[in-house]
Each structure stands twice: as C-alpha cells, then as structure tokens.
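Aim 2 progress update. The chain analyzed this quarter is reproduced below.
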Amino acid sequence: MAENSVEKGPWKETLDSFVQYVALNPKEFLFYVFLIMTPLMAISGYLSLKLAKHIEKNEKEKKKKATRQSNMAKARRRAKAD
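Predicted structure tokens:
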C-alpha cells in the first residue's frame, strides 16, 4: 500500500529495468563489467607503478641532499677548528 503512494520517477523505472536485465542475463552483465573494468584496472596499475617510481626518486634526492648538507656542515666545523 505504501508502494502505491510513491510516485514512480524515471530513475525508478530505469533501475527496475536494469535490475531485471541483470537478473535475466547475468553472464552478459558480468562480461560487460569485466570489459569495462579491465582497461581501467590496467591504467590504475600503470599509474601506481609510475607513482611508486616517483616517490622512490624523491626519497633518493632527499637522502642525497641530507648527506650533502651533513658533509658541508662537517667541512665548516673543520674550517672553524683550523
């Protein structure tokens, strides 16, 4: 009875037809899901790899910079001591 009082909008009808399609054609639905998701997952993996390499590069640069600064500080201390 409460369902009759709710107005069926275009979204509700579309959702109902979609659910009906999925229920009647599960293999075809899964095929389309995998067809759409496969390239997206490949792009995601590529971008993750690229990000990991970028992070490693930045960490190496920070480590080099810290080593360089510590060596410069040691050289200054030696120069003051002389």
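The longest helix spans residues 26-81. The CA atoms of residues 27 and 33 lie 10 Å apart. These observations will guide the mutagenesis experiments scheduled for the next reporting period.
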